[in-house]
Write a structure and sequence with these properties.
Chain lengths: 319, 837
């Protein structure tokens, strides 16, 4: 699948901000399974300093410093991405979850693709007994890793209610778990917390979902903002497999990866510090438009996502 | 030479006899090594002179000297430590007075072992953050690195500026029953304790000066000189732009940070003081941004940059990692160096060492097994009860090993089950470790010696001449006889460590000695945060003093029968109320009770305890810049006011407190003005004070001589402005409005007059960094000029309510202008978590 992706994010401040420093992770990059052929980022106001790097996990990061007093900060990005379908995997095949766990302890790989980075607590993932115990029900001795993970994903989908009012971006997983409600970020964090509680490697992935469903299919949850899901490591043969607990889907060509990391804090689209006070308002708009295979060069209309799409959420609450 | 050895033998015998009296009840613990006596109970030779010296002085004299050492430490502690901590400002490690003695031969061996270990750890860090060969080859499991919160991914592939990760390294050592030293843990994050060691050394060598000299105790100063030179060399500007980065006064080792910064001559900085621009780090000072090239880091890496490291940190410097990546600043130790401290590293270092160094490790570490792999995990589970079970990565494991390492057999049955289950599920988080028995050293118990287990921390610094070991250490002595190392986590005392030189030792000192001190007039521009605190310290101290004067004057008039004094009492009470010193619930109470409230109630923002506490807190963050005596005066005053007034004799006690408080404040002012050199800090302190005094003088004059002026109100005004004596010497007549107002408002030589404050303010502004004689005046300078002019333009009688109100407003505006120009240092009020939440 090929997509044209447009995203606009705007912060509105109650009083002028004289100085700000941000870290922006909003541009997708080519990685196994997807190719980015064209990408743009524009920031307003004009930064005094702009450094682009890749972070440890290979995500595109822009460090910017703004020294112009401003009450509005906007980031617009666009990208053209081609997504390959992942290889078909039989959930009942592959190593058992205990074998996966033992492989983590024996791993001789510290590169960014290694499972070892995703088997431990991280800034937004604190291991906790209730979630681990709940997770354990899907992990009887000897069960294949992928099969157990798919069941866990399905249980989250079945037992939890999608409710964007129940949580916000900093809600700890245990709170969403106890309420049995939340959004994609909460579901991803809960699933990760449970898997790591058993010593299993699970990564946090942020990205996009196609905005318009294929004919005859339902619109997916989380398509109108940045989405989040989980990637589990299923042994050296299967490697990483994307599981989307919000939609109970094994990730395929409807998902475009923006960034991955240990949890939300590693991939937060915009982090930053600024001098100033006053509440901020954030608005986000995302369009992920499938491109007809026949006209690969067709461009989406200029400025497609428009002015923040009329959303006025206090916070960005990813899908 | 025969005569010489005879003499030596004689000396030995004398020493042994003297020691006998102290050691009559000394019983080493069974099965452990003892530092004082050997297995046959014979005194080890290096202790002879010390015991002989103590015996010669006699128990009483020794007790007296040791008490003096405690007093010295307490006083220096009062200077540095925070009062609001649970320990009541006590140092965490009270002094165990007898030093640990290490002879030259043993010391040389220890030094070689430590330096070798430092080299190995440096290579391990360079490999983990660089090439990654250790992990690839299987010598170090990848999860053992990735699981550490101190493995900082943004630093992977970044070469540390200056070429090394470690510039400071410390190791905790214990001596096993076989007499060998073992490494119990490595400290590479930001090793603490060297400052305490220095402090202990000063305290003990003041008490036992002759002994420390005659025993050739090697001095510590050379080590610190090496450390300082090594760090200063990293400063490419050559201007000595080296800072010590501290998490701030709430940190438990802040004392050491302030102490070391002073001792080494580095500026003490908090994250708030610093900002990153174009890949370089700058200090925000009253004279603008000043670059800093080297930071001796006492802030944990993870907290150093909220943008790329822990987003919850409020102590760090946004953008620091980016500056490090670009080579714009050198950190000692490098960010991420704390990785080595993960206890599980000790299960791999014994094999990694020879691999890296090509030789065996001279100093072994405690046998350790990581439970992340099946074979080792089974081994730990098999001997669970005999081993120390510890978190693999940190100091504690929430919910399981809350208090850190514990011997398996010591767990309660319920907890034991939980831990066993957790090891089966997440073995990666656990290690098992051999339970070490520590050796004992003597402690002084009122004339008798008793054996106590101890852990020895030694320090190594990278200097221009290579690794240098501090010839001494920080020794933690247990309060109990339990010699298992695992029980030594907290509590206990600290002892000095004497390395006995083979001959007379170099007398280097870094403490200022007459004629030896470096001549250095400028200490660099004042950080904005410090200037802000100086300014407010000045204002709070002045406000406290004025409140006290008001109270004293009020109390003095209460029982008066002089006509008109009741009006004065009403006016004074009104002033107190307008300052929030009297609570609403007491509005109709007797004036005595109101005065009492203003003196003692800590819940009122304008009452004395709150003002003094505000002053103390403000001073506490610039302690390193105040004279120790000035700080102590203020801290003692806050303590006194915080104590509840006894119900019995409350009135007398209140009077007494009032007088004592006034004396303390005068002492503080004297110490501050006499003992601070006339640099920016003093200027801001005095500016704050003058502005506060100007504002309050205008307000008092307005309140007292507005309506119903009487001899009484004029007298009160003179008293408040401390001008009675001058007035009486100048005027024979009784108080009348014009001369009194002239003296209080306009007299340029009366140091309490309004005009005097304004003169002083204008003079300070001329000396501040933003002033340029050739440029048009700044807003605050214009305001000062207007104020100066009105002091000259109007007579005393023309200062009516409106004019005085205007002066008050102008002074407040002036205060805001100064704040805006010099104190805008407030760093980020939002961190990523707020921004997104």
């Amino acid at each position: 699948m090929k997509y044209d992706i447009h995203q606009a994010t705007a912060y509105l401040y109650a009083s002028p901000v004289p100085v700000a420093r941000h870290i922006v992770r909003m541009v997708p990059v080519s990685r196994p399974g997807q190719r980015v052929t064209d990408s743009h980022i524009a920031v307003d106001p004009e930064p005094a300093e702009w450094v682009e790097t890749r972070d440890f996990f290979g995500n595109q990061v822009a460090h910017i410093r703004i020294e112009t007093a401003h009450t509005r900060f906007t980031v617009r990005t666009s990208a053209r991405v081609e997504v390959d379908p992942p290889p078909e995997r039989d959930p009942a095949a592959g190593p058992s979850w205990e074998e996966v766990r033992e492989a983590v302890g024996h791993s001789e790989d510290l590169t960014p693709h290694s499972p070892v980075h995703h088997a431990f607590p991280s800034p937004a993932v604190t291991l906790c007994e209730p979630i681990t115990d709940w997770t354990r029900k899907s992990f009887p001795p000897g069960r294949p890793m992928l099969e157990a993970c798919v069941e866990l994903m399905q249980r989250i989908y079945d037992d939890f209610a999608y409710d964007s009012r129940a949580t916000d971006v900093s809600t700890p997983a245990i709170e969403a778990f106890e309420m049995r409600r939340g959004v994609c970020q909460d579901f991803a964090h809960i699933m990760i917390t449970g898997l790591r509680g058993l010593g299993l490697p699970a990564a946090y992935v942020s990205g996009f979902l196609r905005t318009e469903p294929p004919p005859g299919k339902e619109r997916l949850q989380g398509a109108d903002a940045t989405h989040a899901w989980v990637s589990v490591w299923c042994g050296s043969e299967f490697q990483w497999i994307g599981l989307d607990p919000t939609n109970a889907l094994i990730v395929s060509t409807d998902h475009v990866v923006l960034a991955n990391g240990r949890d939300y804090t590693d991939v937060a689209p915009i982090g930053g510090v600024l001098v100033g006070s006053g509440r901020q308002k954030l608005s986000v708009a995302v369009d992920v438009i499938p491109m007809p295979e026949t006209t690969p060069d067709a461009m989406a209309p200029d400025g497609a996502p428009g002015e923040a799409g009329g959303m006025d959420d206090e916070t960005e609450n990813p899908g | 030479m025969a005569g010489g050895s005879e003499l030596q033998a004689l000396t030995r015998r004398f020493e042994a006899e003297a020691a006998d009296s102290l050691m009559s009840s000394y019983r080493p613990l069974p099965g452990v090594h003892d530092e004082l006596v050997d297995a046959e109970g014979k005194l080890r030779p290096q202790w002879g002179p010390l015991l002989a010296g103590l015996a010669e002085m006699g128990v009483e004299e020794v007790n007296r000297l040791f008490t003096a050492a405690d007093r010295y430490l307490h006083r220096s502690g009062v200077f540095y430590r925070v009062y609001d901590d649970a320990g009541g400002g006590e140092r965490p490690w009270p002094l165990a007075h007898l030093p640990l003695l290490i002879d030259d031969t043993e010391w040389q061996a220890l030094s070689r072992g430590l330096i070798q270990r430092a080299q190995m750890l440096e290579s391990v860090l360079a490999d983990i953050y660089g090439d990654g060969e250790l992990v690839r080859s299987g010598a170090l499991p990848a999860a053992a690195v990735a699981g550490s919160p101190e493995f900082l991914r943004p630093l992977v592939g970044v070469d540390p500026h200056g070429g090394s990760f470690l510039r400071l390294y410390a190791a905790d050592l214990g001596r096993g029953p076989d007499g060998r030293w073992w490494v119990l843990s490595d400290r590479t994050q930001s090793p603490s304790g060297a400052g305490y060691a220095l402090e202990n050394r000063i305290a003990i060598s003041r008490s036992l000066p002759d002994l420390s000299r005659s025993m050739n105790v090697v001095r510590l100063a050379g080590y610190f000189q090496g450390l300082r030179a090594g760090l200063t060399k990293l400063d490419r500007s050559g201007e000595g732009r080296v800072g010590l980065l501290t998490p701030g006064p709430l940190n438990e080792t802040y004392f050491e940070h302030a102490y070391l910064a002073r001792y080494l001559g580095f500026v003490l900085l908090q994250g708030e003081d610093l900002t990153v621009r174009d890949n370089a780090v700058y200090v925000r000072t009253v004279a603008g941004l000043k670059r800093v090239d080297v930071l001796l880091r006492r802030l944990d890496s993870d907290f150093a940059d909220p943008l790329e490291l822990n987003p919850r940190s409020r102590l760090g410097i946004p953008g620091l990692v980016q500056a490090v990546r670009a080579g714009g600043v050198a950190l000692a130790n490098a960010l991420g160096a704390g990785l080595i401290e993960a206890p599980l590293m000790m299960s791999f270092l014994p094999k990694i060492g020879p691999r890296i160094l090509g030789e065996d490790l001279l100093l072994p570490n405690v046998a350790t097994w990581w439970c992340g792999q099946e074979t080792e995990r089974e081994r730990v589970l098999d001997s669970f009860d005999d081993l120390v079970i510890a978190p693999a990565f940190g100091r504690s494991l929430p919910g399981l090993l809350e208090d850190g390492p514990v011997i398996g057999a010591d767990l309660t049955p319920a907890r034991r089950e939980e831990v066993l289950k957790a090891i089966q599920t997440r073995g990666v988080d656990f290690i098992g470790q051999e339970a070490v028995r520590l050796s004992t050293m003597p402690v002084w118990r009122n004339g008798q010696l008793e054996p106590r287990p101890f852990i020895l921390r030694l320090f190594v610094a990278a200097t221009e001449k290579g690794w240098q070991v501090m010839p001494g250490g920080f020794c933690r002595v247990s309060d109990s006889r339990d010699s298992r190392a695992v029980t030594m986590q907290r509590g206990g005392r600290s002892a000095d460590v004497w390395v006995l030189g083979a001959g007379p030792v170099d007398q280097t000192t870094l403490l200022p000695a007459p004629g030896a001190a470096e001549v250095r007039r400028q200490v660099g521009p004042l950080p904005s945060r410090a200037a802000d605190n100086f300014f407010w310290l000045g204002r709070y101290v002045e406000r406290a003093e004025l409140t006290l004067r008001l109270l004293r004057t009020l109390v003095g008039r209460l029982s008066s029968t002089i006509e008109g004094d009741n009006v004065s009492v009403t006016k004074l009470t009104h002033l107190l109320k307008s300052w929030g010193a009297v609570p609403a619930d007491l509005a109709h109470a007797r004036t005595t009770r109101q005065a009492f409230a203003a003196l003692s109630r800590s819940d009122l923002s304008g009452a004395l305890p709150s003002i003094v506490e505000a002053a103390r807190q403000t001073a506490s963050v610039i302690r390193d810049r105040l004279s120790p005596d000035a700080w102590r005066t203020l801290a003692d005053l806050a303590l006194m006011l915080a104590e509840p007034v006894p119900a019995k004799g409350a009135e007398a006690e209140s009077h007494e407190r009032l007088e004592r408080a006034l004396r303390s404040l005068s002492a503080f002012s004297g110490l501050a003005s006499e003992n601070m050199n006339r640099q920016a800090g003093w200027r801001f302190l005095d500016l704050g004070r003058r502005i506060e005094r100007g504002i309050s003088t205008a307000r008092i004059a307005r309140t007292l001589v507005g309506e119903m002026v009487s001899a009484s109100t004029l007298d009160v005004l003179l008293e408040l402005c401390d001008s009675q004596i001058t007035y009486r010497s100048r005027y024979v007549m009784t108080e009348s409005r014009a001369p009194v107002l002239d003296m209080v408002l306009l007299d340029p030589v009366n140091p309490r007059s309004l005009a005097y404050q304004i003169d002083a303010i204008a003079e300070h502004l001329d000396q501040l960094p933003a002033h340029h004689g050739d440029e048009p005046p700044l807003p605050e300078e214009r305001l000062a000029a207007r104020l100066l002019a009105s002091m000259k333009a109007f007579g005393a009688n023309e200062f009516d309510d409106a004019r005085l109100t205007e002066v008050e407003m102008q002074l407040m505006e002036l205060s805001n202008d100064i704040a805006e120009r010099y104190f805008i240092h407030r760093s980020p009020v939002e961190t990523p978590w707020d921004l997104l939440a």
